[in-house]
Design a protein that fits this description.
146 residues, alpha/beta, 36% helix
């Protein structure tokens, strides 16, 4: 199974990249972890938020592998603990379908992107919803058999 983190934003501090690299090693070998960083739409005075999020949505959708289960990490989603999310990941792993974890940009995700059939979860482990936070939380649970 492949776990693809599709996240808006390209430049990360060195500490975040180090954390990603470290925690990515903790995943079991049967889960292939991949990060697809999506270009943030430039914030200018001429563009409204809806147009920015729509442009980012198009880039996100283009990066999602065909047939992957889409899981949106969004603060408006169903609140799920790290342990619950790790258990859900284990269930999905048994299904054998690739999982695409979606993390929006500075303004979040286009509201239409959060509509079913996608699953939307909120992180209770950290106020930031970056791929590094998501990876750190999940892999810690998986590595400890939660």
């Amino acid at each position: 199974m492949k776990l693809i983190v599709v996240a808006v934003g390209q430049r990360v501090p060195d500490w975040a990249q180090t954390a990603w690299d470290d925690y990515a090693k903790r995943f079991p070998p049967e889960i292939k972890l991949e990060l697809k960083a999506i270009k943030t739409e430039p914030r200018t005075n001429n563009k409204n938020i809806a147009a920015l999020m729509q442009a980012e949505r198009e880039r996100i959708e283009a990066a999602i592998p065909k047939g992957a289960r889409i899981v949106v990490l969004d603060e408006r989603g169903k609140h799920t603990s790290t342990v619950q999310l790790a258990l859900r990941l284990s269930e999905w792993q048994l299904g054998g379908t690739d999982i695409a974890l979606i993390i929006g940009g500075p303004d979040g995700l286009d509201p239409d992107f959060r509509k079913p059939p996608k699953k939307a979860f909120a992180s209770q482990t950290s106020p930031c919803l970056t791929p590094w936070c998501a990876c750190c939380s999940w892999s810690s649970c998986i590595a400890h058999g939660a």
